[in-house]
């Protein structure tokens, strides 16, 4: 059963008067997960669950599915006709002021925009102001336990060892006068994950030369490219412990299959690393000072370094994303490019910092993970790459 008292505590901390969770036929996965509704449970009618800042929660359910929310505490209100639904909503939320829903003004954060415009209009007709539940959702979807942090650290060791394996394969093949391929290295890293009890939703990226200029390049038998002396290679890998509460480690490093990378590559890497470090520094500074920091602000810190260095036109994605049980979690993203993410970076949450510069001939990304613990201390996992690795 959910802890309604905890939800009310969070409502008070964010200055909200209530949280109205809504779903129709699985349209709001966040609400269903937060309310611990079985994802396989059949649902064909609209339901609402209202948690007021103070007082008893209210369940609004259709007559034909009156037991849809029976596992939750609170008063039950049943409707049959559409007019009755509007009445039940109005009498439940009227006078409560700011009501949180899975909504984002102007769809600025699409990860939160689970409630359709018509339903928002229906709720607003009750005389309340609908605000985004984005930060509330984080508290139930993005916050890690101590055990999850420990599993992330275990996953970090395995993913970092994956770089040693992958780059080591390249070194050994080329040093012996031979070569290897993207898919060969990719398959070896996947086998490494399996051996160490790790799972992933996609095989790692192993990208040679121009392929590294495509942030989401996916090696396949059709695109498989040889790795030889004098090549630039990017490896991006993500995996987690095979456990219900396992959380991801998501890292990227780059290397030169030779004794010294070209000057252009080194110049671009220095800019990317500077952007990465500027983002981390802002998070550290804000938490050390006890000041709030939002996802878009961290993105600006990183992208500003890249733009000031004259590489702005080669930015292809945001600086980072939330990390949890999914590679891309439901917490604040480090984003003022693809979205304007105003969600707070909260204690006990994790996210990637992965600025990149992507040109036609090559692309460079440096990715680490940042976890802010319950006390506000900022931890960086993945190892800060300070220069392009040289393999010979």
SSE topology:
Blueprint: H1 4-13, E1 18-23, H2 29-34, E2 47-52, E3 58-62, E4 75-79, H3 82-93, E5 98-101, H4 117-124, E6 129-132, H5 134-141, H6 146-175, E7 180-181, H7 182-195, E8 198-199, E9 205-208, E10 226-227, E11 232-241, E12 249-256, H8 263-289, H9 295-308, E13 322-323, E14 349-353, E15 356-358, E16 363-365, E17 368-372, E18 378-381, E19 389-390
Parallel strand pairs: 1-5, 3-4, 5-6, 12-19
Antiparallel strand pairs: 1-2, 2-3, 7-10, 8-11, 9-11, 11-12, 13-14, 14-17, 15-16, 17-18
What does this structure look like?
The protein has 392 residues and is an alpha+beta fold. It folds into 2 domains: 4-141, Creatinase/prolidase N-terminal domain (Creatine Amidinohydrolase, Chain A, domain 1); 146-390, Alpha-Beta Complex (Creatine Amidinohydrolase), CATH 3.90.230.10. The protein contains 9 helices and 19 strands. The chain has helices at residues 4-13, 29-34, 82-93, 117-124, 134-141, 146-175, 182-195, 263-289, 295-308, and strands spanning 18-23, 47-52, 58-62, 75-79, 98-101, 129-132, 180-181, 198-199, 205-208, 226-227, 232-241, 249-256, 322-323, 349-353, 356-358, 363-365, 368-372, 378-381, 389-390. The protein has a 6-stranded mixed β-sheet with strand order 4-3-2-1-5-6. Strands 8, 9, 11, 12 and 19 form a 5-stranded mixed β-sheet that branches. A 4-stranded antiparallel β-sheet has the order 13-14-17-18, sandwiched between helices. Helix 8 packs antiparallel against helix 9. The model has no long low-confidence stretch (mean pLDDT 97).
């Amino acid at each position: 059963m959910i802890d309604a008292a905890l939800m009310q505590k969070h409502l008070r901390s964010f200055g909200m008067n209530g949280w109205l969770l809504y779903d129709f036929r699985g349209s709001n996965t966040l609400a269903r997960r937060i309310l611990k509704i079985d994802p396989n449970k059949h649902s064909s009618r609209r339901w609402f669950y209202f948690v007021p800042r103070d007082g008893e929660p209210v369940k609004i359910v259709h007559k034909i599915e009156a037991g849809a929310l029976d596992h939750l505490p609170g008063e039950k209100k049943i409707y049959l006709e559409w007019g009755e639904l509007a009445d039940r909503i109005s009498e439940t939320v009227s006078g409560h002021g700011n009501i949180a829903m899975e909504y984002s003004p102007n769809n600025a954060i699409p990860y939160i925009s689970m409630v359709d415009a018509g339903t928002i209009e229906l709720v607003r007709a009750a005389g309340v102001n609908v605000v985004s539940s984005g930060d509330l959702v984080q508290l139930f979807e993005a916050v890690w336990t101590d055990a999850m942090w420990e599993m992330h650290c275990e996953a970090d060791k395995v993913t970092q060892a994956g770089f040693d394996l992958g780059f080591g394969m390249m070194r050994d093949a080329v040093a012996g006068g031979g070569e290897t391929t993207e898919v060969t290295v990719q398959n070896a890293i996947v086998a490494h994950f399996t051996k160490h009890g790790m799972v992933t939703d996609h095989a790692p990226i192993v990208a040679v030369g121009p392929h590294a200029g495509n942030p989401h390049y996916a090696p396949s038998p059709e695109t498989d490219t040889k790795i030889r002396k004098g090549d630039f290679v990017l490896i991006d890998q993500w995996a987690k412990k095979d456990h219900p509460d396992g959380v991801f480690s998501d890292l990227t490093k780059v290397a030169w299959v030779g004794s010294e990378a070209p000057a252009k590559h080194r110049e671009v890497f220095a800019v990317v690393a500077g952007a990465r470090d500027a983002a981390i520094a802002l998070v550290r500074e804000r938490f050390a000072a006890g000041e709030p920091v939002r996802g878009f602000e961290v993105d600006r810190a990183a992208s500003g370094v890249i733009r000031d260095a004259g590489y702005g036109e080669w930015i292809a994605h945001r600086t980072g994303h939330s990390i949890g049980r999914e590679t891309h979690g439901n917490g604040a993203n480090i984003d003022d490019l693809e979205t304007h993410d105003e969600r707070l970076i909260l204690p006990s949450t994790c996210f990637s910092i992965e600025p990149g510069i992507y040109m036609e001939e090559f692309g460079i990304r440096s990715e680490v993970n940042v976890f802010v613990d319950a006390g506000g201390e900022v931890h960086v996992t993945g190892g800060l790459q300070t220069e392009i690795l040289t393999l010979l």
